[in-house]
# Entry
Amino acid sequence: MAANRATLVRPYEFDPESDPEGEVPEEAQNVRLRQHVSEWCSCGNCAAMPTEPENRCCLETPQVIKRVREVEEPISCMIQHPGLEPVCLNLYSLQNACNIYKADYGPMQLRGINHRYRYPAYRSFVSWCWGFLGRKIRMVIPSCVVLRIRTEFPDAQNQYVGFRPPLD
# Structure
């Protein structure tokens, strides 16, 4: 019986303990909101977003960098990737993504045709770069990619939700 205990996996056994004194102050968490885009964007296609997590460049996200580097001709931004259009911007691909979503989760409650395509475009990008993540796991899409998708599928009132962390 003692041998079986030694082989049991104990969750969080090797995770570091939290240090409440080491938490980052709120004013330090919003550094990019105060910076000019050129201070954090390396691709030259990003724009300032409304929240700190959304101020992210494609060239600082490892999973996106991997996609950028897979292209034979060097590119300086993810929006130049030849796979972005067929995976995330093509209406037929997005219609198919909507059908898959509907089969798995039920109908989407979306406002307008562009929102109907924008949402699966974001989901397709995340799936393409990160793979299957599971429920309630969300990734921040780089600013340049968000702007490219919004250009293709704009909101008439310019009312975008932005990144929302999952609810527990």
Observations:
- The chain has eight helices and no strands.
- The first helix runs from residue 2 to 7.
